[in-house]
Structure formats: C-alpha cells, structure tokens
Amino acid sequence: MPINIYDPRVLDGVIKLLPATGGFFRDTFFRKHTPVPGTKIDIDFYKGKRRVAPFVNPKSAAKTVEKIGYKTNTFETPLLKPKDVTTIEDLSVRAPGENIYGGITREERAIALLTDKLAEFNDSIIRREEWMAAQSMLTGKIPVIGEGVNYTIDFGFSNKEALTGATLWSSPTSDPLKDIDRWVLTCQKNGYHTPNVCLMSSDTHNAFMQRLIALNYMNQFSGNVDLAVIKPQQLSENVIYGGMILKYNMPIYIYNEWYIDDWTNPDSPTELPIVPNGICLLGSSNAKSAIYYGEITLTDENTGGFRSILGERAADTWIKKDPAARYLAMHSRPLPAPQEVDSWYVATVL
Predict the structure, then answer these.
(1) Where does the source fall among the domains of life (predicted)?
(2) Poorest-confidence range of 54-58, 133-137, 195-199, 220-224?
C-alpha cells in the first residue's frame, strides 16, 4: 500500500528529522524543553532566605522557624502557526535549484516542496523562540503581537540599569570592571547565582576593550594578577568569543543576529538586532529556566473530531477543491520562562 506523504503520521515523522537552527539565548539559558498538557503553564516562584539556625538553651524547646512561601504565576503559551498554500502550478513549475532537464515527477516535486517548507517553518519557529528568549532576559517581558493577539507576558524583572554621564563606558572616567563587580554582587545577593556568561553587543565590546586598554587592565595589575584576557575569535556564524573576565572565570560573547519586525509597522518591516546597541548582560546558565510547550489541538479527518499533540511541533494539512489547493501548516506553543528573575543583570552602558 503506497504511503500518503500528507498523512499526519508521515508529517510528524518529517518534523522529527528536521535539523535544529540554534540560537544563543535558547541554547545557553533555556536548554530545558518541557511539553505541558493544556495551553497554560503554572510556574512557582520560590525565593529562599539566608537564615541561620537559632541558638536555644539546652533546656528550652526547639524554636519554630517561619515557613517561606512561594508565588505561582500562570502564563498562556502563545500559538505560532505559519502556513503555506501549494497549487497545481507549484507542482508543474521547476523549483529553484532544480535541474532544468531533470524531468522529476509532480509527486517527487511535492515531496521536495513538503520537506523544504517544513524546514522553513521549523527555522522560523526557532527564530521566534530565540527572539522570545532574548526578550524575556533583556527586558523581562515578551510582547505577543500578531493576528488577533496583542498582550504582554511580564516576568517582573528588575535587575537592570542605564548608565549615564561619566559612568558611560564611552566616557574616559568609566571603569567597566567595577560596574561588572557591582552587577555580579547584585546577582549573588538577590538571585543566589554567580553569573558565568557575559553577553555584549558589538559596540559595547569595542568600548569595553578601549577602557581596559586605557586603564591598563589588559596587562599586569595590582598583585601581578591579570583581570581580563581579550583574544576575540569567531565561534559560529553569529557568535564571537570576546575574551574572559578572569576574576569570575566568565567568558564574554558578542552576539550578532537580527530578525524582521513585521508587526510593529506591518507596512514597513524593519530588520533589528536581537541584542540592541549598548547592551551588556550578565547571566547564569545554572539558573532555572525552560521553554514550555503548550498542548496543540488539531482536527482529525479520520474521526471527524480532534486530536491533541503533546510536543514541540505539530504539522497539519488539508485541501480545498475550488480552486484546487493544498494547505500546510506547522503549529507550536512555546514559552521561554526564566524562573529565577534576579539571577541575571542587564545594563545599557552606551
């Protein structure tokens, strides 16, 4: 019995074979991926206290210690659903890169179009996940703006600062390493984590290097101790290793990636950087965070009802007879959620 390439079982299998398109925020701070039933997630925010055990007289009863509570926030997982339409003309015309004299059949071309389109959808969803992860850390908020939706997911992030005047890293009176010391201390005190990743925009890194040179921090400093080693090198297509802050054994990364903003002004899409100019972020890859994936519900042609999918992606396809067309869509309900919102710091330094 021939296999129908549009059968949901086949589509789900194709999705599992798709290559991943990584992202710095997604792969560094949100490595855990957790599918959840339903479309909402409940996250418990528990914050301990640095209490020490109480002294008591040997003849006294033990002292009751006050319980520490927690706060539960409920978030809706946003729905992503890119769609494509294939007509008879698409199956009759040579695809880009196809051999002019190859003469492949319409069925072969349909398979090629299917896999190419699913790969394209997968890439676009990963880019959206990366954008959401970056927004959650850089601003503490994820704007959900699109077809029929307009709301903001707010994680209550407050560890941020905008330098001014003589403290700007472009100023000859600034000391970037002292600023980083202060931000690390804030994360240790309020978030219980020592940052182990420093992320900078390109202009921030340039200003950082200039100040280190001017302050003679890149050579020997007090006590014959190097404060920083700066030896930039390309790590991947869009990530550059920018050196090491030795005091914290904290690598510096420069992340050059962009996205198309076609929702702020749909008539004039704009290409914007994932990491805006003048930004320095200190984060911990050990802090609790995850990308939660809400349950996906699709119609089931075989039963006339619905089927639910618990996972990161789900493909769906259906046909329209007049005019003849086949629709292909990919569904996903991702939500990158940082749970320890005091464990990282974001500063605007330029």
Answers:
(1) Bacteria
(2) 220-224
Q: Which pLDDT value is given to residue 282?
A: 98
pTM reported for the whole predicted model: 0.85
| pLDDT for the residue numbered 93 | 59
Burial class (CB in 10 A: 0-12, 13-18, 19+), 315: buried
Domains of the chain: 1-45+71-350 (3.90.1690.10)
Residue 157: name the closest of 349, 347, 348, 342 by CA.
Answer: 342
Q: Is the distance from CB of 346 to CB of 138 less than 8 angstroms?
A: yes
pLDDT (tens digit per residue) in 78-102: 999 999 887 765 665 555 555 555 5
Closest CA to 348 of 211, 142, 170, 156: 170
| 125 C-beta neighbours (distance < 10 Å), count | 20
Q: How far is CA 67 from CA 47, 49, 340, 341, in A?
A: 11, 10, 20, 22
